[in-house]
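So, is this right?
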Amino acid sequence: MVLGVSSCSSDDNDNGGAVDPALSYNYITRNRGYIGGSVIYNPTGTNNQLEPGTKLGIRLGFLQSDFATVTELNNIDFDSDSEININVSSTGGVSGYTNYNTVQRAVSTDIPSRARYGFLDIASVSAERIIFFSATIFSADGTSFKTVSKTLETGEGCDLNGDGFDDVKYVLPPIKRSGYEDARWLTFVCDEETGHTSMYITFTQKEKNAGYRRHG
């Protein structure tokens, strides 16, 4: 297990900012489709998803790993001459295969009670760095929150909730593509080995115009 070490600068502020915790917490936790991956900054303007004023909802989760008994069908070559044992019911339907193994597999399960939600509010972004005007993380019950300001240089990551693991990283894409030569990725880190996950949601223009606060 490797701890993520963050070298980004920050300015912590308990219950700071202008966030209404009751409305905002209800809004970002209600039937939202959080996804993992990256949000693109592209200075050429093509498919640019990050700019000053961009707001992203974030979910910081935790996975619990257990072993489960799984029944797996063996590989069957239907073109071979080998015998294939299939149980056939009296009506002629296939009721099951005898060509299977029972094995133990590691299974990771999300623990909703350990998830934390919040917002990222982008103040400025360039190829050199990204600045979060505020990263707001709510308590488990949404009744309190902590706001921190963060600056990430390219190649750095940040721990947003103080658990010792990087939740986001501002990085070069692994492969350069035409039209994206100077692009950067704000990557939301998901590490099944440590059990820590970070996901995000974007907002529609209608939601942006509403100021993110009218959907309690």
About this structure: Helices lie at 21-29, 205-209. The first strand starts at residue 9 and ends at 14. Confidence is low (pLDDT under 50) at residues 1-7, 86-97, 211-216. The first helix runs from residue 21 to 29.
